[in-house]
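Quick entry, no commentary yet.
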Amino acid sequence: MCGIMGYIGRREALPILLDGLRRLEYRGYDSAGVAVLGNGHIEVRKTAGKLSRLEEVAGLAHLGGTVGIGHTRWATHGVPTDANAHPHADCTGHVVVIHNGIIENFFALKEQLAARGHVFRSDTDTEVLAHLIEDELTGGAGAAAGNGSGPRVLLEDAVRSAVGQARGAYAIVVMSSDQPDRIVAVRQISPLIIGLGEGETLLASDIPALLTHTRDVLVIEDGEMAVLTPAGATLQRLDGSAVRKAPIRVTWNAEMAEKGGHPHFMIKEIHEQPQALQDTMMGRLDTEGQVELDGVRYTTAQARELTQVWITACGTAFHAGLVGRWYLEHWARIPVEPELASELRYRDPLLAVGTLGVAISQSGETADTLAAVREMRSRGARILAVTNVVGSTLARDADDVLYIRAGPEIAVASSKAYLTMLVGLQLLALDLALRRGTITGGAAAAIIQEMKMLPAKAAEVLRREDEMRLLAERLAGHEHVFFIGRGLDYAAAMEGSLKLKEISYVHSEALAAGELKHGTLALITRGTPVFALVTQRHVYEKTLSNIQEVKARGGEVIALAYENDAEIARHADVVVRIPATADALAPALAIIPLQLFAYHVARVRGNDIDQPRNLAKSVTVE
């Protein structure tokens, strides 16, 4: 989730850009840059690292001008380097672009542009936009002839034509030295907000960057373009039709604004999950049953030669791996051995020839996971990383990398990273299955169709948050809570239990439902809350029998089931509903109510939700 800032008005742009970008630092970033337009010329300064480094090394004192754009980048294409930092310019330096999101077809566009003589200076998808706009401004002669040839083309028309060639989810902001009276912005899913001042107009990816200058904002919606001038902003659809909307007055304080109006980062990130799911799948699936994984380089022959997969991770990432085991075994028909990274490195593992080691880590810096990777590699395994951070140690050490594209996650307790790990593992298993011939194109297409409905169904679950809030408020006083399930329900129950203990400090255990009678049933007393996940149809009746065991000991059963399950209400005290989906995909929806329950229990108990005691976001020591 990159930070975007823009300014056009009567004041010096640079201090305003830097102040806005600092107020967006909470979003996380790995590089920063600014472009300022003054005296008919654009000056660009950018660097890998933090804003403080940009200020130290980039000679910002000499950047004067009243028009500018700035950016903090969270890498998705190209590792964090000075060259890959934004803004990006065209061949002439007359056009600069900043961008948040993903251009799905940038490889094809880059090849076409290079064939026309355009020279690329970075590995990013963003740079193709600058060159596309250059071509539109010059009638296709930009790389060879430079700007200024032919009749004048308005910047907004050039941008409209350029984005018409790009596929993906993005927000882009464009500035041209040949048209210094405007900044052009387009939103296609990624957020953009306009700030309206006196004789000045601002632009940002989030409201906190605007609040010291104005509280009157316009929200650019998907498929809209904005043309900013010192006098204000005009909006239109990408088809050219006008858009008229009244400004919104922001009443949030700065701290609330950083969290999108939510009281904590964790609940903000829980609500970002539908978008995160969509971002993870973006450009990687089609409805005909095909999977395309950028960064995954194994060949079809290598996929067919695999004899086993080892999955290693810690904490939440390991719970995602347990779900991934099911996908790999059932779809790709490969034996899978999941092992905690802290255990694998000391167990003298038996890795056969043809082993793929799948290492999962949000940060890509988890010490135990990195050590487990070294252990697997020393025994001949090919390493595939599932991670969120481009250029992380894990990404650099792996043969293949599958980025989950969750964006920065600030709260210590993971939410959206878990969901995107699940989808990443679905993508991996489908790709391997198709290459190995263990699934038909039709079956893959059916799974993909269900996957593409997950973002909308996740949003539907979130609309029922009040139900979980009320349940949490009633049960927050309990000191022991249990979670049970079978198969994939058990894997999801483990993550639900972890979320509760992490932030509420309530003792919680997750159990395979069939194991209750082997000891833990002794802990179930009258009124003990027991969450029973009941989404796996092939073990449905078995799980109902386990629910009856709990009921017979006086436990309170909170069942989590599909909305079309009419039977479950006869067996449970409370039923939490989720939209029906393929059973294999159910963990991605089932976990959301459990995240909400954990959050609201912690809220009622007055805990520090974003930074729970004794825990850290990235565990970089053994």
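second:
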Amino acid sequence: MRASLVVLVLAGLAACSPQVPESGVGFQDYNTYLRSREFRATQPVAVAPVAPRPVAPITGFSPGAAAAAIDRADGVGAAPLPVVPAQTAFAPVIGTGDRARGNAPAGIRVEAGEVAGTISDEQDFEAVSARETIESDAARIESNRAQFVVIQPGALPVRPGETGPNIVAYALATNNAPGVALYQRSRFRAGNAQAACAKYGSPDIAQEAFLAAGGPDRDRRGLDPDGDGFACSWDPRPFRTALQ
């Protein structure tokens, strides 16, 4: 019973489906369609001609055209461009002999070996030998020697108000090296030497203060704990070397 019902349903569906023609493609049979497609493939494809676009001529920048375009945009007439005169070559000015050394001011006198309107000829042997002799050269040398003055060195001036000790003179008056003890010092002050030296801006200033306070025999400020006569690492050797 069930099988017969299934058969009836399938038969109804087959009756309702549309009929497909034998062509399969369009209204022709498939073989005709293939032959038509092969024929169309062998035919050239027609291409529509394209007209070339006009190309504007390439020109350089024109200041006049640019100015005219700006004037047209502003609503005024084109103003003529200013005419720039062509540059001309300047000829070199030649000395006329009225001025010394070419075009130098007339107040400059002509030196020996210089000719008006030209440069010095001191390096020209023929020109120099034509106007100079051995005798004139000897006379010139003697004149230069007579004008030569030797200034002898003198004593240095004393600075006004300078009453403190002179560390340069002290360095030259001593001959012991730094660190060589010559004077007795208190051990109590030895530990405070670093703090005492920190009060001065340089060893030279500390040495001046040391000498002004009774050094080198006495060390009232604790600046010379090793007793060499030199305070706060002050070194007299550079002054001694300068004298040699």
